[in-house]
Amino acid sequence: MTSYPIMCLILLSWAANAWSQESSIIAPGAKLEKLAGGFKFTEGPSMDAEGNVYFTDQPNDRIVKWSVDGQQSTFLEPAGRANGLCFDDQGRLWACADELNELWVIDVATGKHTVMAQKYQGKLLNGPNDVWVRPDGGVYFTDPFYKRDYWKRGPIEQDQQAAYYLSPDGKTLTRVTDDLHTPNGIIGTPDGKTLYVSDLSASKTFAYDIQADGSLQNKRLFCDLGSDGMTIDDEGNVYLTGKGVTVFDKGGKQIEHIDVPESWTANVCFGGRDKSTLFITASTGLYAVKMQVKAASHQ
After folding, report:
1. What is the pLDDT of residues 261-283, one digit of tens each?
2. What is the 3-state secondary structure (H, E, C) of the chain?
3. Residue 101 confidence (pLDDT) above 60
């Protein structure tokens, strides 16, 4: 016969396990699913207003659309060697087009793009990599230097690898960091108050307070993990990529890790009709898993 103290311990253990399962951000019983493969290297997923997901197959120089109906199609080819993508509230698609070291905004209806940035203080950008548009239309992007075999440019011109802010009117480009090694993944909160920037080679991600003029203040360590790309959910959890997907709550505590069977996980976003499916771009494939959380109102 089991003693009362032992029975209490068993019940407490069962309750703790049940709570842990119920509190998981992954939907009960959900498994990671490979949606598509055969890509050379997938990157930069972003969700439009309907929940369709656009992502890049960067070495093949194209932007691919995965519809809410589960249909794959090519949205734009060639695509300026687009990397990170982000939709704004006007339905325009921003793209880090590093073939010519440019930041684009694309009219989705026509596929035509406008170059919004290529130089800072008269010198060529390193290579825009990841981008996030804040609610008022201001744009943040990272600009590390990863030498590409398709470049016809000369050596690095900027004196730093940094993050930048483009004003809502598209007229003023400002450098907003000055002490990062390799800024890469970037995402902000839906209220436009906090920006997360990953320093990939330093294996750290930092949080900043966003000021009205676009400048950043109160830099603080968010977690000791770098990230290639990032997203955020409606509970404020932050999703980092690299070896699978690692999820941290808003306080910087790790709450989940999703293994992905590829050598590198580049980026991540929410999508689908109810915006509660996590889409993952990882090397040669596109993956997805059903979640209990949803996309932040502005991601």
Report:
1. 999 999 999 999 999 999 999 99
2. CCCHHHHHHHHHHHHHHHHHHHHCCECCCCCCEEEECCCCCEEEEEECCCCCEEEEEHHHCEEEEECCCCCEEEEECCCCCEEEEEECCCCCEEEEECCCCEEEEECCCCCCEEEEECEECCEECCCCCCEEECCCCCEEEEECCCCCCCCCCCCCCCCCCEEEEECCCCCCEEECCCCCCCEEEEEECCCCCEEEEEECCCCEEEEEEECCCCCEEEEEEEECCCCCCEEEECCCCEEEEECEEEEECCCCCEEEEECCCCCCCCEEEEECCCCCEEEEEECCEEEEEEECCCECCCC
3. yes
